[in-house]
Structures
1.
Amino acid sequence: MNTKNTLSVCLFPAAGYGTRFLPATKAMPKEMLPILTKPLIQYGVEEAMEAGMNTMAIVTGRGKRAIEDHFDISYELEQQIKGTSKEKMLYGVRHIIDQCTFSYTRQIEMKGLGHAILTGETLIGEQPFAVVLADDLCVNESEGVLTQMVKLYQQYHCSIVAIEAIDPSKTHQYGVIAGEMIEEGIYRVTTMVEKPSPSDAPSNLAIIGRYILTPDIFDILRETSPGKGGEIQITDALMEQAKQGKVIAYQFKGKRYDCGSIDGYVQATMELYQQEKSQ
């Protein structure tokens, strides 16, 4: 069992259909879409590993077997390329397989992010955990976003959401927070609204796909009624914690690409390619 200061588990909700990328995602999970030579979910796993986590809990759905196969040994492939120049191309994912434990459960119905996180309870148990949404690709030249958040968790011992300032006209696409700034870029959350119109948004500080959650979130999610879009929203559950002053919002250092959108996906591909070429 973890102490309250230790984070070893990262949850990946990966059951969504990825409809914005049809027909590419008709038979391939959106989390397996590649940025250069690595699928999105591998970037997320590497970020979690850098933050000290070695247990990856993945909530999948129908048609997602490619994720399980990716984080498994392919004996036939390895035998085929053994001793060739291509062998080193698998070093990264083999290191992940050697260092991490992967567990999986299925979300039978798509009822929102809150429901997906609740589905992962069987893999998490009674311990704090991180959540990564793989289609938010975050890059930083020094510390990854989760590493930054783990340090913050060790200081505040409560749920933490990563936020960034967005164009106010796009608030209807995000959960939006307002709160009291307690340090530069760190807020104690007082309000969270899921996908408000620009006129109703409490700020332009939007939650992105990185969370650290305390295990009481599961009991709160069980009692959370469906909200926006008839789905169980994690923002509604977090708001219950925020009423007790137990949610911190962190304006992270780094850059986020919304790879759930075609524009963000193409931008990430082009910019990471240019970075790789310049090295």
Note: The mean pLDDT is 92.
2.
Amino acid sequence: MTQERTFAIIKPNAFTDGNAGKILARIYAEGFTVVGIKKLYMSKVEAEGFYAVHKERPFFGELTEFMASGPCIVMVLEAECAIKKWRDLMGATNPADAAEGTLRKEFGASLGENATHGSDAPETAAFEIGYFFSGLDLLM
């Protein structure tokens, strides 16, 4: 198997609830390498650009307001099958449906405030990584 990269966010609710360090510890414990990491405050416009794929969905406004509501941590993670591995660690989008031991089950507050984000495909990961990181930002 070859190494793969994926994009991840520790969302504002997990950050402000003091769980960012716990989530980062789990990332390392699960064998991911963090090749890029930034703490940032996403503006509403930046959140709208990032989530543009959801623009026509009814939750778009609520989602972008939430993502602009506080600090978050954006990351590029590397591992074998990183996209699937990260999505498995996060758990189902709705914390109520997430399996025990997943990040969203443990740290998610609701469907909208589910603690983490992750790319769902290689093409999505490429867009999302490029949205926040230049090549110079990433450890090789």
Note: Residues 86 and 118 are 7 Å apart (CA to CA).
3.
Amino acid sequence: MERTLAIIKPDAVRRRLTGRILARIEEAGFQIRAMRLVQLTRTEAEGFYAVHRGKPFFPGLTEFMSSGPAVVLVLEAPGAIGRWRELMGATDPSKAAEGTLRREYGTSIGENATHGSDAPETAAFEIGYFFPGVELARAGGVG
């Protein structure tokens, strides 16, 4: 089993798409091991996206991610990282495959509805960022 971090971004929460996205996550066979509604400060968004500091899109990204509530989740499944990225689709919704979340719910590269970890090391950092010291639910039971 593998775990990944997923975020339902502020644009999707604002447009009341959280339930639809959660349903798609469950329909795709993921187990939700942790979930929180968060309102990031600009500083928290900058910390989370620190790997992108200095890139031209960094200020806009951190402003957007701190613009409203987001839902952060830990998803578990065999091959969770790749499977979640496949379900999300390409970063640019206009280039995402039919049936993907970003194709259906994203409106631009910046407001593309969802985020997902891109590698096991990234997933470990991102899960720890939002769920520090939290014992995540185990398969077959609670906590």
Note: The beta strands are 2-8, 31-38, 70-77, 114-116.
